Structure formats: structure tokens, C-alpha cells
């Protein structure tokens, strides 16, 4: 299908586009492409559905954008065409399966498996699913280089408006090129620098992984979808908001963070909040990829739910303010900071509230639609209409598996009159009954907070969710949970079997009241090998991805032979030291 009537332009890519393109060039297409299914209003002709798509292509520069580049190099420029073509596949059936929406979703999901050519492809792959010539659904896969879940919501909203005969007002949001110019201004560069400093503080001091515990391993996890639809939860959420004066979205985020931190036994909930960049009015309805992460760090060491709710608003706002950045510079900072700290930043918790977007989207794209590894997680489920008076009190249903680079991913589709959310919980950490108990516990927490403040020390009793049991071999070190024996095992393997002993040194109490985290020391028997602390540290850092329970030692002590009592720190201390240092610099002795 041909379109024409736009304006030809070109300029630099936006920070969000550069971030997503980085993921698209690295990750498998089914993990980074996104998809959606739009219902076609009854009585719509195929030609009308296609004409509405043509109007959207002319209206939105992002749909007319390609990214020229040479092989092996990431694009730095975007080109907007004034005319072009796109393809719509019409799949006409005499009859459709009973679950016609699920069939359309499977088509859209399958279309994600083909990589988009950034330098030439139209960014939407559209199939019209028809019954006896009448279109019923539009199933599509979309390039994450120019769209995110919010952009697809805007496109769906406008497409339905066009089919209803509406005249759309001129777009009020920034175009990608206008946003790129704003980001490159002095004020935009200062904002990006501030975001990097904010991220660095969290990555340098917060837990390296929220779910650092036995069973957590690997960088990609095949995870089934669990969906909650609950009238009870929506009613309780509204009552908590009324009682506390908080916004329902903030109340839900607070409850979710409280439960995640409680289950993981963490002092803070660190989570990516990908849709945050639409909080600004000039970007709310932008057709662009704006889903750089807002990195939320919420310290849960407060006595009650209401106290946490007061902190959550400021923490979320701070995260949103620091969610625009140069993705290349961000990952350079993360690499430098984690090498110095001796950790690997795990973007293993994602909370994506799409319930306030301009149109409800039934597919849930992009666990990686941010600064971390790109990934998609599609779902299709019926969304309650805004005025629906009835619905299940509490309904849980399981859906298909999805490979994700996260431990816990949650999408909020609606907060009323039903609370409708989907979550993907690492099955190695949450058995099916534990996953269901986790979502049921969320509902119980909201119901308890609806009538009174909830003491956070009572979360197990209130929700039925218990903190993880790590066992005595786990320690909290440098703000992160780690297992010294596991560190020793991984370091020994990384050094081709050299004997290693790792101990956690208690830092004691430094301010008269608060116990401080200790630090790890590794003792390595290198024999005649000319091993240095820097070589040992580099070898361990290379082995860290997929091992959130492993934290690099602060100090490496290299001796010749292991002691007879190799499991006793005092025995290692009696050995003659050949070399020692942090491994982070050239402090080899």
C-alpha cells in the first residue's frame, strides 16, 4: 500500500531510539520486537481499515522513519520519508476459532520472530484477520526502534477514531526529531548527566540483584504468565487511595514494592519502570520509543505501609526525572561502576503500569524496553470496559511461557473497576502455588491497608507471603546478598581449579547503632602461576553474568600453597603472601 503527503526530514536519533536500536542489534528479534492486537469495529470494510493505517503513516513521522547505517555500526541518524509503501496481509476465513482473539495474538506473536531491517522496513507488520470478508482483528508486530507500548496505544486509539469517522486534532506531542533536538540542547545534556549520576548512586550502593538467592541463575528465564483479575483488589485499591490521599497508581506501586522486598528479604526494592517518560504532557501521546527505564529505588526500612507510601511518591518522581539519558554513556558507566564494585547489575525486576495510557493495550511488550536487555512478553486477555459493574472477586489464570531477562515482570493493564495485571515470576524461585500466593498476597495487603495502616513487620501474617530462606552460608555484603562459598566455587572455576577460600569480614558498628555490611576477602593458592589480583578479579567478573548471588571480593590475597585446613580462614592467614590487592587497579604487591 502506498502513502504520500508527509514531510521529508532527517537528523540525529533520540536517546530512546539509540537505546532500543542497541537492543535490536544485539538481541533475538522475538525478544525485542513488540506486538499488539486491535479489535476491528463491526461493520468496518477492509478498505477502510487499510485507509486508516495509511492516514496514520502520513500523520506520524515515526512510521515513516528509517535508520541508515553501515554494517557493524549502530545508526546515528534517522531519515523521515515523505512517501513510501507498507504491506497489509489479509487473512480471510470462512470461520474463526472459538478463541479468535487468541488466534490473532498468535499471528502477531509469530510476526515478531523476523528481524526488522532498520534501514528500510516499515515499522509495522499488519495482518487483518477476517471472517467471510469482514475484518475482525488487526494483528501486528512492531519495531521497538520507533514504537513502545505507549505508542501502540496512541496508534490504536487514533485508528479506532478514524474508523469511527472522527477528525483527529493535529498531533500535540514532540516528534522524534524535535525530541532529539531538545535532548542535544545544553539543558538536555545536563539532564542526561544528572540521570547518569542518579543511576550510578543506585548501582554503586543498592543491591546488585533483588533476587539474589538459591535457584536464581541464568540471564534468560522461560517464564509462564500469571494474570490477576480482581474486583476485590480494585475496590481495596480505591479505598486505600481515599484513606491516604495517595494516587491509586502510587498505592499499587507501593504495595507491589513492599511485597517484592519482603519476599526477597531486601532493604530496598530496585525496579525498572519503563513507561515513565510519558509523564510529561509533550510526550504523553508521542508515537516514538520513549521507554527508557526509570530506575526506582525505594528503601522499605520504615515501620508501616502509610510511611512507605509517603516515600514512594518522592522516590517514583525522582526516578521519572532521571529517565532520559545517553544509553551508550549509561552502559559505559555501569560497566565501570560494576567492575569497581565487583558486581553485575541485574535488571531483574520490572514494573510497567500501562493502565493510564490513552487506550488499553492487550499485549504486554518489552521487559527490555529500557536500558537493560531487550525482551518482549506478549499477552492477550480481555480487558474490562470502564463501566463494567461486575467481574470476578479474585481470578488467577495461567498463560503461555515467555523467555525473559528478568526474575519478576509485572504489567498493570487496569486498576478499576477490576485490578487487571499480568506477571511473570521466575519458576525457579516461585513454584506455581507460590506465584499464585504472591498475587493473592498483594490483594490481601491492599484489603488490609484499605481500612488501617499496616505494620510492615506483619507482612507475612497479613499477606501469607514469607521471605526467602537463604540459609547460614549467605551474607549481606556491600548492600547485596551473597554466598561466600559460592563466590569461592565460581572464582576457583574461573581460575581453572585453583584452590580458593572466601571469607566475609564483619565491618562492625561504625556509628554507634547501625551494623554495617562486611566485605569479602578471597585467598587463592596460585602455586607457581604468576597470578595477580587484577587477573583474578577480571576472571571472576567474566563469570558473573547469570550468577546474582556472587559478589567479587574487595581484596584478593594470593599465596603459594593452600593450608592443610583449607576451610579455615586462620590457616590461610598463616600462609606467606605472594601478592595482594583489590584487583581493581594496579595495586599489585
Structural summary, described in words:
- Helix 3 (46-59) packs across helix 5 (149-163) and helix 9 packs across helix 10 (305-321).
- Helix content is 34%, strand content 21%.
- The chain is globular.
- It has helices spanning 15-26, 29-32, 46-59, 100-111, 149-163, 176-184, 186-205, 231-244, 248-264, 305-321, 327-341, 432-451, 459-463, 484-494, 533-543, 569-573, and strands at residues 2-4, 9-12, 34-39, 65-66, 77-80, 83-85, 88-93, 124-131, 134-142, 221-230, 268-273, 294-299, 349-353, 395-404, 408-414, 419-425, 475-477, 480-482, 500-505, 519-525, 555-559, 577-581.
- It starts with a strand and ends in an 8-residue tail after the last strand.
- A hairpin with a 2-residue loop joins strand 8 and strand 9 (134-142).
- The strands form seven sheets. The chain has a five-stranded mixed sheet with strand order 13-15-16-10-14. Strands 3-9-8-7 form a four-stranded mixed sheet, with helices on both faces. The chain has a four-stranded mixed sheet with strand order 19-20-21-22.
- The protein has 589 residues and is α+β, with helices and mostly antiparallel strands.
Amino acid at each position: 500500500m502506498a502513502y504520500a503527503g508527509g514531510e521529508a526530514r532527517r537528523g540525529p536519533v533520540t536517546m530512546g531510539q539509540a537505546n532500543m536500536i542497541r537492543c535490536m542489534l544485539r538481541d533475538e528479534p522475538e525478544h525485542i520486537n513488540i506486538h499488539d492486537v486491535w479489535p476491528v469495529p463491526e461493520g468496518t470494510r477492509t478498505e477502510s481499515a487499510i485507509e486508516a493505517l495509511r492516514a496514520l503513516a502520513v500523520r506520524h513521522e515515526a512510521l515513516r522513519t528509517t535508520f541508515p547505517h553501515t554494517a557493524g555500526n549502530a545508526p546515528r541518524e534517522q531519515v523521515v520519508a515523505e512517501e513510501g509503501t507498507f504491506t497489509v496481509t489479509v487473512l480471510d476465513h470462512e470461520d474463526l476459532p472459538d478463541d479468535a482473539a487468541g488466534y490473532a495474538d498468535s499471528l502477531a506473536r509469530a510476526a515478531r520472530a523476523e528481524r526488522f531491517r532498520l534501514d528500510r522496513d516499515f515499522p509495522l507488520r499488519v495482518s487483518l484477520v477476517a471472517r467471510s470478508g469482514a475484518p475482525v482483528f488487526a494483528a501486528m508486530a512492531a519495531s521497538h526502534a520507533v514504537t513502545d507500548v505507549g505508542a501502540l496505544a496512541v496508534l490504536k486509539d487514533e485508528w479506532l477514531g478514524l474508523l469511527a469517522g472522527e477528525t483527529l486534532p493535529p498531533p500535540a506531542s514532540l516528534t522524534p526529531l524535535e525530541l532529539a533536538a531538545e535532548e542535544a540542547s545544553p539543558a538536555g545534556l545536563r539532564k542526561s548527566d544528572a540521570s547518569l549520576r542518579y543511576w550510578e548512586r543506585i548501582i554503586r550502593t543498592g543491591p546488585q540483584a533483588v533476587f539474589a538467592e538459591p535457584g536464581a541463575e541464568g540471564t534468560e528465564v522461560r517464564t509462564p504468565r500469571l494474570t490477576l483479575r480482581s474486583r476485590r483488589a480494585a475496590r481495596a485499591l480505591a479505598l486505600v487511595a481515599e484513606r491516604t490521599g495517595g494516587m491509586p497508581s502510587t498505592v499499587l506501586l507501593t504495595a507491589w514494592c513492599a511485597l517484592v522486598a519482603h519476599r526477597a528479604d531486601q532493604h530496598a526494592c530496585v525496579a525498572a519502570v519503563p513507561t515513565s517518560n510519558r509523564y510529561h504532557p509533550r510526550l504523553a501521546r508521542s508515537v516514538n520509543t520513549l521507554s527508557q527505564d526509570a530506575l526506582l529505588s525505594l528503601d522499605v526500612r520504615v515501620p508501616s505501609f502509610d510511611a512507605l507510601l509517603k516515600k514512594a511518591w518522592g522516590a517514583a518522581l525522582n526516578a521519572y526525572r532521571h529517565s532520559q539519558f545517553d544509553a551508550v554513556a549509561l552502559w559505559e558507566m555501569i560497566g565501570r561502576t560494576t567492575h569497581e564494585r565487583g558486581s553485575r547489575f541485574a535488571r531483574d525486576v520490572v514494573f510497567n503500569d500501562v493502565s493510564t495510557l490513552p487506550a488499553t493495550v492487550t499485549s504486554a511488550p518489552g521487559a527490555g524496553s529500557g536500558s537493560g536487555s531487550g525482551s518482549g512478553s506478549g499477552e492477550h486477555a480481555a480487558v474490562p470496559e470502564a463501566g463494567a459493574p461486575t467481574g470476578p472477586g479474585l481470578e488467577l489464570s495461567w498463560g503461555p511461557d515467555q523467555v525473559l531477562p528478568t526474575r519478576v515482570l509485572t504489567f498493570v493493564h487496569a486498576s478499576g473497576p477490576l485490578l487487571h495485571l499480568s506477571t511473570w515470576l521466575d519458576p525457579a524461585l516461585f513454584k506455581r502455588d507460590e506465584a499464585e500466593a504472591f498475587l493473592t498476597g498483594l490483594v490481601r495487603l491492599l484489603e488490609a491497608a484499605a481500612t488501617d495502616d499496616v505494620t510492615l513487620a506483619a507482612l507475612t501474617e497479613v499477606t501469607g507471603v514469607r521471605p526467602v530462606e537463604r540459609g547460614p552460608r549467605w551474607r549481606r555484603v556491600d548492600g547485596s546478598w551473597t554466598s561466600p562459598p559460592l563466590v569461592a566455587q565460581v572464582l576457583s572455576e574461573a581460575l581453572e581449579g585453583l584452590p580458593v577460600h572466601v571469607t566475609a569480614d564483619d565491618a562492625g558498628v561504625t556509628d554507634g547503632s547501625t551494623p554495617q555490611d562486611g566485605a569479602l576477602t578471597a585467598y587463592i593458592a596460585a602455586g607457581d602461576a604468576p597470578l595477580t589480583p587484577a587477573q583474578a578479579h577480571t576472571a571472576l567478573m567474566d563469570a558473573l553474568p547469570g550468577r546474582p548471588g556472587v559478589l567479587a571480593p574487595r581484596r584478593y590475597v594470593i599465596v603459594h600453597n593452600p593450608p592443610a585446613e583449607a576451610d579455615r580462614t586462620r590457616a590461610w592467614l598463616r600462609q606467606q603472601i605472594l601478592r595482594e590487592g583489590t584487583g581493581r587497579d594496579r595495586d599489585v604487591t
